[in-house]
Amino acid sequence: MLLHSELIHPEINGILGQAGHHSKVLISDGNYPASSKIGPEAELVSLNLSPGVVTCSQVLRALVTAIPLEAINTMGIPEDDPYAKHGPPPVWSEYEQIIGEAKLGLKLEPIQKWDFYDEVMSDDHVLTIQTADQALWANVLLTIGCRVS
Fold this sequence. Notes:
Helices cover about 25% and strands about 20% of the residues. By secondary structure, the chain is α/β, with parallel strands linked by helices. The protein has a six-stranded mixed β-sheet with strand order 2-5-1-6-3-4. Strand 3 (about 70-75), helix 3 and strand 4 (about 110) form a beta-alpha-beta unit. It starts with 9 loop residues before the first helix and ends in a 5-residue tail after the last strand.
């Protein structure tokens, strides 16, 4: 399911090459519990070199060139979370810019936090790419679509 891309990471390319329609790929921030909130068959690739290196935006920028996408979801902020009153996190604007530049025709859609975890822990989840992103609420879940010739 790979497209011609800028992605050169051999393990990530191998996993994505085996993934199909509806498969889910999580790009997790440095706060995400990647070892415990993962699908039963999903692979974990850690790119967390040091705080802030690598970011979710950097990984998203590479992945939008590598796989066809049908949905892009963020982890929605619960109303009772102190951060909820601040509006959408700044990193979501970065994601919207990346999506727009890639001309994907998709909108960034939040999924409430506990539903987000359920989506990640499903059988469709094939890969978590763990980053060291320090931005709050930076987790982003990609759903692979069909390749269109």
